[in-house]
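Milestone M4 deliverable, item 7.
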Amino acid sequence: MDNGMENMLDMYLFETNSLLEQLDEVLLDAEKADTFTTDNVNEIFRIMHTIKGSSAMMEFSSLMTIAHRIEDLFFFIRENTIDSIDEEHKRELFDLMFFSTDMLRAEVEKLENNEPLTSNVDSFVEKVNSFLNKISNKTDDTTTSDDKKAENDEKTENSAVNLPEDGSGAFLKVTFDEGCGMENLRAFMLVTAVKDIYENLTFYPPDVETNPETSSIIIEKGFLLGFDTKETLDAALNTVQSSGNVQSYEVLMPPHVEKKEKEVATKEKKETDTQNVSVTPKVQAPAQQSSNANAMQHIGANKQSLISVNLSKLDKLMDLMGELVITESMVTSSPELQGLKLDSFTKSARQLKKLTGDLQDTVMSIRMIPVAGAFQKMNRIVRDMSKSLNKDVRLTIIGEDTEVDKTIVDSIGDPIMHMVRNSMDHGIEKTAEERVLAGKKAQGEIILSAEHTGNEVIITIQDDGQGADPAKILEKARRNGILTKPESEYSQKEVLALLMAPGFSTNEQVTEYSGRGVGMDVVKKNIEKIAGTVTITSELGKGMCTTMRIPLTMSIVDGMEVSVGKSIFTIPISNIQQSFKIMPEEIIYDAQGQEIVKRMDNFYPIIRVHRLYNIDTEITNLEDGIIIWVGEGDKSYCLFVDELIGEQQVVVKPLPSYLNSYNIKQSGIAGCTILGDGNISIILDITTLHHTANDYAY
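Output delivered:
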């Protein structure tokens, strides 16, 4: 695929995914209101029309067919009003629409994964056709008799033969694509479109809107449109040509008009060559162009203020921004300037640092997008699971406008979805009666929220269900052999942390949906990959809350430079609680001889960095170095280093790929950065560092 086609495909996927998200929101809102408003119907029709057109342009036939059939369905609904559909059929319509969006999304995912599209969607077409027949027959639930069918046949034949002899009048015989289905409704859609241009239109068969039996007549003899003059017919030709599923058309005129046309044909052959022509589905292109032109006209005012940018370009911009930060640090921290009094240079350097910081904030803000995209998808999950599990649950979303880096939004979708499913499946009580007996509202609630705190975003998934039973958790942990100390010594926080142990589950049976705890270790790993943390709180009978703390961006961080021997390490400022000197009498030893220090009425183990990484250093006494109290999630401990160098904004650089075979990321190392003097500093990962130094853990 050449670069141009790749760009077109990227734009197609972006627009289609955006439209499907809009469609889900419209459907969910409509289902809550238990009806489709006029705006809902028009919006769905517009979305499907757009997807149909762009899919046809890209030659994705399955996507085009699905969108086209739904467009037909909502055209009928738009013309007949949603109020004409009874409650039973309305519920069926909602299910059909959600099924349709799932099919469209599945096809889009195949494109994203470079997989072949579905070649046969006949079962879906049949499902839509069947539903359309149900609602179109509602006003006339009796089938047409043979006599009535014969009468229609006679009318059709007469209309094609008894043309006016006075030179006025003209007919257009339209033939639809073979096997397209619902020919009567397609004819009715064509009539409605032409009537926008020519109000006094006549057509045969005349009862195509209410009589499905007329489909066979149209297939056999075609569909006739009657005009009072040849000029009005010519004016309607563009509309007929641009209509979907029109295979061909033929102009039928009285003898005098036909003779006149033949005379004109000898003089203007080129013009009359277009009067009798086969029209293929590709004739839709002019309509698509017209639609696109209208759309461009509509958004013309916004064209200069909003553009779409490929994410790879933003990644490149972020990389250049990182290099600029490094270069600025190299210039201002050059060893050649040490000890020199350069007032003018210092002033300029401060201004450069300010501008660099402002530029960095701007570049980062470009990559920031609201978490609403990931949050809104949960509405559909709650809706589907509510029906499947027969639970009445509402989803409350708070802080959906909170913005984080685009790559982080993409990474948190699956963990959030897993936790919402857990809350739905095993968090919320099975029946409303159980909730009422427990003093709760019959309807369960899941609260999904996001908020900024400093350089990170906090996402919580909270339910008001039955909560986690510590006794059951400990019992299952004991059976799985993952307890590391007597059960009585586990705190509430430590018990809940067991839920995130690999393979742990409180469920005794496997269900359609993941049980509480199943895959929680995967959720934790996914969040830790983006330098985040996961913690769980719960109260039996009250519910459970999962909290994810995630950095706003992973590219540039504020860090504290520390030295250990001749090595330099960077500790993220967000992980540092406190740094202090220690006196010998403050050091406490546990039964295993582990060094512990008391801080804020709690005791924390001390991890000697030089011993952990086998670094030679002259500073080995705790009172001679610096103690840094660090924390991440539910883990807090102290690091012993030689000295603090100072705070520095650093650019996180990934480790070389050949180091992956050494599993170096599991050694407490998150990456590296280049300092202003050209030296390399290792960035410590506080979470994995604690796991690595488990000999120093509690």
